Each structure stands twice: as structure tokens, then as C-alpha cells.
């Protein structure tokens, strides 16, 4: 609905009809849909909450006047709550202001608006009671904190190379160990030496046999 936002039943005889906006002739149909079932039931005191109503047309005034008559026929009445000065002037210009009870708040009518029960229950459910930790829980927290504090130190110690290892590595880089050569690397020299020896023997043989 555009003009009738909601209805709130206070007791079997009292119901609040919350309205809003600029209530012109189009609002009358919504008012009928909301109010007629209430009057057909046991409701006799209708409270129209006009706190958010900006304007009322003559057709709405006629509807309220007819509703007042029906309510009085059931020994009830129509009350208007939170109406602005502009809305009150509309009743005054139509000479209807004396036929209705105007109040600033519901409390002035003796009606209190209790807080929703769901909100209270949610507050109770959402709030957890704080209890002191047990001895085992305190020990577990202390061990966890100690482990957390040791981890950076252990990582730093693991990342640092001992001084002896660093010196050994530097010495090895400066004085690399001699590499062992294989006998195959001396094969060429052995061959040259063998040829030279054979040539020397052949030359000596020819020299002696002459």
C-alpha cells in the first residue's frame, strides 16, 4: 500500500492505523481496505497516526467523518495522533476539528508502544556470558604464545651460517684443491718419449755397426 503503511492492534477494541504521504482521493480506497474489516470486527477505537502525513484531501476528511460515525455507533471514537499544523488546518477549514480528538503522541492517549520482543530476545541471545578460563586453557594459551615467540628466533638461527663454516668456504674458494689428472692426459707425452727413444736406439745401432 502507498498511503496506509500498517495497522497495529493494541487490544480487541483499539487499533492504530499508520498513514503517510499526501493523502488525496486515491488514498480513500486503501483506507476502506484497512478500516472496514476492523469496524466489522470488534474494534471501536481507531487511532490514525498522521505523523508522516503531509496533506489530506476533502475526500479523506469525508471518509474520517463517516468512520467517526461508525465508531460512535459502537460506543467508540476516532483519534488523530501526530498531525501537523497543515493537516489540522484542513480540519479547521472544514469545521471538523471539534469532531475529532487530536493528540501529539500515543502516550497522550495512554497507549505505550512496547519494544519488539524479537529485538530483546536477539539481544539476549547475541550476548555471550564471559567466564574465567580454566587452568588447562591458560596453560595451552601460554604454550601457544611461547611457541609463537620462539618461531622467529628459530628461523633466524637456521638462516645464519656458523662462522667456522663461512671461513671454511672462503678458504676453499681462495685455495681450491688441486685436481687429480688421469694418465690419459699424459698419453701424448708418453708417445713422443717412446718415438724419441726408438729413434735414439736405431741411430746408435747404425753407428756401432759401421
What would your notes on this structure say?
By secondary structure, the protein is of the alpha/beta class. It has a domain at 4-107: Transcription Regulator spoIIAA, CATH 3.30.750.24. Helix content is 52%, strand content 18%. The protein has 7 helices and 5 strands, in the order ββαβαβαβαααα. It has helices spanning 27-40, 58-73, 85-93, 117-126, 135-159, 163-174, 187-209, and strands at residues 4-11, 14-23, 45-56, 77-81, 101-103. The chain has a 5-stranded mixed β-sheet. Strand 2, helix 1 and strand 3 form a beta-alpha-beta unit. Helix 1 packs parallel to helix 2. The longest helix is centred in the C-terminal third of the chain and has 25 residues, at 135-159.
Descriptive keywords:
210 residues, alpha/beta, Transcription Regulator spoIIAA, five-stranded mixed sheet, 52% helix, rod-shaped
Amino acid at each position: 500500500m502507498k498511503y496506509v503503511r500498517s495497522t497495529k492492534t493494541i487490544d480487541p477494541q483499539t487499533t492504530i492505523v499508520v498513514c503517510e504521504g499526501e493523502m488525496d482521493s486515491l488514498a480513500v480506497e486503501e483506507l476502506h481496505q484497512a478500516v472496514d474489516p476492523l469496524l466489522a470486527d470488534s474494534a471501536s477505537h481507531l487511532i490514525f497516526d498522521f505523523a508522516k502525513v503531509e496533506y489530506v484531501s476533502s475526500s479523506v476528511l469525508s471518509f474520517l467523518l463517516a468512520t467517526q460515525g461508525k465508531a460512535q455507533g459502537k460506543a467508540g471514537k476516532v483519534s488523530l495522533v501526530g498531525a501537523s499544523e497543515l493537516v489540522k488546518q484542513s480540519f479547521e477549514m472544514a469545521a471538523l476539528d471539534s469532531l475529532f480528538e487530536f493528540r501529539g503522541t500515543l502516550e497522550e492517549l495512554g497507549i505505550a508502544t512496547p519494544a519488539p520482543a524479537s529485538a530483546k530476545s536477539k539481544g539476549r541471545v547475541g550476548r555471550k556470558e564471559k567466564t574465567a578460563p580454566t587452568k588447562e586453557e591458560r596453560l595451552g594459551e601460554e604454550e601457544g604464545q611461547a611457541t609463537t615467540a620462539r618461531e622467529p628466533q628459530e628461523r633466524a638461527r637456521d638462516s645464519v651460517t656458523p662462522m667456522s663454516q663461512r671461513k671454511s668456504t672462503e678458504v676453499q674458494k681462495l685455495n681450491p684443491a688441486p685436481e687429480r689428472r688421469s694418465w690419459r692426459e699424459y698419453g701424448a707425452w708418453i708417445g713422443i718419449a717412446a718415438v724419441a727413444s726408438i729413434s735414439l736406439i736405431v741411430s746408435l745401432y747404425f753407428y756401432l755397426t759401421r
